């Protein structure tokens, strides 16, 4: 049950001073809180014996008020320390979680659902932070404070009465063990269900246009209703066990009160304790109510925190498929790219997605990659990003194996525009500046002009300061592509990878962009995959892929003379253009 505290040991060591002060002051507060009941009991005994005076009464009142003020201030100190630690571990874990996600490769995100990762980054981290704050409070109060009160009852009042009153406590211990295991198992299932619900919400929101277009609103509502019902049932299963904690403790506390009051009155009549002792004892017994509840809260919090930390650690312990080399090579700039008999298969694929691919590209050259849908064009280009472990064969940049180059260094050379454009919920300006932080307006306009997007700025409500909406929802497909292109152009990368990045623009706009690339990227390497062959006519080298294998290669002119798939596709597209 307490393994979660051991797993959080790194944090407690890091914040040793904070927790040492907080726990010491919390224990000191518990000891101080024992004094007012004892003073009140002494005052009652003096009243019963008729020895109370005005001076002694004032003395008792002043002492109790002074103790209450002291308790007030030291309570502030321990609450600030412990609950401040709770907020701190939440911030640290969330930062560590997000930082780690950014190091993981695509295969991890293929295995894990986005909604579940969101649940771990929110609910689970919050549950762990509660363990580091309120959990430490319940741990101290259910052990140290409970023991201090118990000792005060025994030494300051009566051991016989104390032993009789704590007879029901073993019942609490047995119940907590049973409830704790049930809470752990059910809470894990509830968190998994919450992740499923997150996934459904993400899919429904991102696909709302398709849902409406196919009139599937009712079906989607039904599907979401089933998922929320599942979340409800699993959380209710947790709540049903959780609901047993308080009644069980109240029952045991009630038994303790009955035993303490009954046996205490008997001892008063036998003159073994005074009436003041009995009043103090009952106040101490009342002070034990919270530690008894704290036992239940402790089990509950530790089990929830343990289940959540297991889920968080599962992600944090995931190792990226591709890591930096132990002894990286020193490469100043990418002079050339070489694929030598590369065969590659995605982790989830049953067949090779590239097979025996060999090609070389000198610095400043342009490579065109064409082929049927699913032929491996994107897979070939992504090999340069090194997102997956290299298969057989080798990929070299400047004669150095890509595995010997650090990922940061490798990616610093790259400008990548994927098939699916990802824009952030910011302005057009901020999306473009993502490629070059603090880029000037002149640089932005230069990149926008290269992407043939300059004329479109006038059609936007606020020009560069127009909010594009989540994932660029307020822009057309062609506009999103050109903002993405601008983001890549502004970085002026040594290697520009365009993965079917011109598919949403018309032929005239495409021609302008290609001309701009040729004139403004002279001396820099460019790789373009496309279905529209006009985008790669100018390329120094064109390869045709089919089933992950290069079936044709050469310049535009050479491939037309070859009379294969490339020529057939080019002639078909020319006919379509003439008809349009």
TrEMBL record:
The record's subcellular locations are: Cell membrane
Gene Ontology terms for molecular function = ABC-type oligopeptide transporter activity; ATP binding; ATP hydrolysis activity
- Classification via SMART domains: AAA
Q: Does the keyword Metal-binding apply?
A: no
Segments forming domain ABC transmembrane type-1? 21-304
One cellular component GO annotation, for this chain's record? plasma membrane
What species does this protein belong to? Paenibacillus durus
**Topology with respect to the bilayer:** Multi-pass membrane protein
Q: What is this protein called?
A: Multidrug ABC transporter ATP-binding protein
Q: Where is the ABC transporter domain?
A: 337-572
UniProt-listed Pfam families: ABC_membrane, ABC_tran
Where would you find the membrane-spanning parts of this chain?
Answer: 21-40, 60-79, 127-155, 161-179, 249-269, 281-301
PROSITE patterns xref list: ABC_TM1F, ABC_TRANSPORTER_1, ABC_TRANSPORTER_2
Q: Does the keyword Metal-binding apply?
A: no
- Keywords of this protein's UniProt record, alphabetized? ATP-binding, Cell membrane, Membrane, Nucleotide-binding, Transmembrane, Transmembrane helix, Transport
Please indicate which superkingdom the organism of origin belongs to: Bacteria
InterPro entries under this entry?
Answer: AAA+_ATPase, ABC1_TM_dom, ABC1_TM_sf, ABC_transporter-like_ATP-bd, ABC_transporter-like_CS, P-loop_NTPase, Type_1_exporter
């Amino acid at each position: 049950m307490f393994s979660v505290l051991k797993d959080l040991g790194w944090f407690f060591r890091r914040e040793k001073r904070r927790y040492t002060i907080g726990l010491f002051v919390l224990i000191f507060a518990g000891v101080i809180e024992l004094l007012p009941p004892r003073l009140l009991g002494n005052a009652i005994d003096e009243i019963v014996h008729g020895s109370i005076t005005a001076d002694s009464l004032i003395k008792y009142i002043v002492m109790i008020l002074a103790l209450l003020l002291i308790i007030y201030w030291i309570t502030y100190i321990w609450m600030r320390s412990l609950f401040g630690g709770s907020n701190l571990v939440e911030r640290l874990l969330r930062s560590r979680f997000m930082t780690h996600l950014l190091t993981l490769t695509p295969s991890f995100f293929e295995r894990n659902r986005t909604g579940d990762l969101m649940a771990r980054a929110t609910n689970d981290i919050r549950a762990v932070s509660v363990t580091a704050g309120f959990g430490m409070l319940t741990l101290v109060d259910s052990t140290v404070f409970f023991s201090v009160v118990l000792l005060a009852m025994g030494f300051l009042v009566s051991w016989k009465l104390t032993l009789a009153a704590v007879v029901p406590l073993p019942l609490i211990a047995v119940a907590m063990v049973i409830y704790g295991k049930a809470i752990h198992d059910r809470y894990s299932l509830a968190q998994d269900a919450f992740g499923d619900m997150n996934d459904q919400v993400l899919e429904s929101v991102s696909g709302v246009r398709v849902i409406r277009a196919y009139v599937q609103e009712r079906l989607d509502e039904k599907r979401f209703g089933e998922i929320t019902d599942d979340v409800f049932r699993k959380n209710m299963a947790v709540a049903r066990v959780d609901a047993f904690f308080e009644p069980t403790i109240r029952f045991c506390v009630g038994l303790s009160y009955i035993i303490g009051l009954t046996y205490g009155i008997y001892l008063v009549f036998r003159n073994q304790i005074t009436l003041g002792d009995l009043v103090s004892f009952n106040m101490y017994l009342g002070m034990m109510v919270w530690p008894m509840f704290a036992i239940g809260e402790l089990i509950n919090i530790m089990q929830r925190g343990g289940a959540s930390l297991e889920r968080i650690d599962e992600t944090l312990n995931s190792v990226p498929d591709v890591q930096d080399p132990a002894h990286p090579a020193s490469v100043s700039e990418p002079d050339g790219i070489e694929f030598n008999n590369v065969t590659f298969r995605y982790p989830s694929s049953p067949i090779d997605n590239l097979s025996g691919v060999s090609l070389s590209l000198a610095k400043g050259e342009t490579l065109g990659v064409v082929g049927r849908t699913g032929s491996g064009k994107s897979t070939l280009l992504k090999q340069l990003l090194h997102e997956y472990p290299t298969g057989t064969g080798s990929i070299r940049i400047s004669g150095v194996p890509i595995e010997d180059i650090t990922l940061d260094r490798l990616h610093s050379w790259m400008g990548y525009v994927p098939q699916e454009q990802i824009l952030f919920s910011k302005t057009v300006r901020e999306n473009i500046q993502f490629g070059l932080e603090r880029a000037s307006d002149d640089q932005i306009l230069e990149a926008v002009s290269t992407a043939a997007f300059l004329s479109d700025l006038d059609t936007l409500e606020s020009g560069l300061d127009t909010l594009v909406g989540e994932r660029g929802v307020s822009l057309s497909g062609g506009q999103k592509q050109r903002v993405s292109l601008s983001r890549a152009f502004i970085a002026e990368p040594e290697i520009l990878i365009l993965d079917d990045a011109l598919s949403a623009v018309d032929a005239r706009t495409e021609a302008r962009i290609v001309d701009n690339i040729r004139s403004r990227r002279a001396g820099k390497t460019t790789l373009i995959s496309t279905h529209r062959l006009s985008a790669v006519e100018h390329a120094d080298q064109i390869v045709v892929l089919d089933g992950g294998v290069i079936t044709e290669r050469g310049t535009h002119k050479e491939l037309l003379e070859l009379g294969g798939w490339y020529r057939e596709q080019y002639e078909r597209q020319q006919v379509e253009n003439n008809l349009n």
